[in-house]
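Predicting holo structure, 2-acetamido-2-deoxy-beta-D-glucopyranose bound.
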Amino acid sequence: MCILRHIFLILQLTSYFYGIFGGVCLIPSPVKRQSTRSILDHFIPMHPRLDGRIVGGHRINITDAPHQVSLQTSSHICGGSLISEEWILTAAHCTYGKTADRLRIRLGTSEFARNGELLRIQKIVQHEKFNFTNVDYDYSLLQLKHPIKFDESKKAIKLPEKEETFNDGETCHVSGWGNTQNLLESREWLREVEVPLVNQMLCNEKYEKYGGITERMICAGFLEGGKDACQGDSGGPMVNDAGVLVGVVSWGYGCAKPDYPGVYSRVSYARDWIKEHSGV
Ligand SMILES: *[C@@H]1O[C@H](CO)[C@@H](O)[C@H](O)[C@H]1NC(C)=O
Ligand SMILES: *[C@@H]1O[C@H](CO)[C@@H](O)[C@H](O)[C@H]1NC(C)=O
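Done. C-alpha cells:
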C-alpha cells in the first residue's frame, strides 16, 4: 500500500485510490513544501492528515528570526528570507507561474495574518534553470517595491560564501508558519525546529528512488524522523548557529518521516547567481 502524505491534489487523489484498491505505487515525485491544503483532508477522514507546520518544533518570536518573511497571495503560501533592505530569497516552486503583482510580503511580525507590514513586490527573479520535475535550482529572488528600514523585527540574514561547505551533523534552525489545519484558527505564530545536517551521499541514497539529490540541494533532519519542516514552510530559512543562511526549505517525502530528511536548496551554490541578480 502506498499513500503519499503530502502532494498536490490530483496526485494525492490518485495515490489515495491506488492505496485503497491495492494498486501499484505511483512513481514517486519530489513533494514540494509549498502550502497546498488538501481538500481531501476534510472530506476523507481516513486520509492521513497534513502536519501543516514545522513538525516537532517550538514557538518563537519574529525578533528571534527577524529575517523571516511570509510570501502571500490571498493568504500565506511560503516563507522567505530578507537578504538586504530590498531583496528576499525564497524557493522557485513558490513563485512558479506567479506574477509580481499577485504577491505580497508580510514582514516584521510573528503572525503571518496580522501586524507588521504587508508590502508589494517589484520583480520576481526565478532561477532560469529551475526544474519543476526534480525541484533542482529551487531559488527565487523577490525585489520589494520600496526598500524597508531594518529594526529588531526586520533584519537581513548573512549569506554563505560561494561554495562554502557545512559539517554533517551541524545543527541548523528552520522556521516558518506552515499551514494551519484548523480553519477557525486565525492566529498563527512563527515556529522553529532544530535539525542536524545530513551527509550528502547518505541523503542521496535515501532519496534514490525519487531521483536523488543534486549539488543544489542539502539535507537536514533526524533519520529516526519526528522533526522537520513541512508544507507552507517552503522558501523559508535554514540557518546555522553562526547565523548563516545554509538552506531554503524545498521538498521532502512526507514530513518528519523516518529515513527521509528534509531537502533544502543549498544557498552557497547560488551565491554568484544571487550577487548577479540582486547585487547582494
Ligand atoms: C516573545 O516576546 C515576548 C515579549 O518580549 C515575551 O514575553 C515572550 O516570552 C517571547 N516568546 C518567546 C517564545 O520567545
Ligand atoms: C528536469 O529533471 C528531470 C528529472 O531529473 C530530467 O529528466 C529533465 O531532463 C530535466 N529538465 C531539464 C530542462 O533539465
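The domain at 54-278 is CATH 2.40.10.10 (Thrombin, subunit H).
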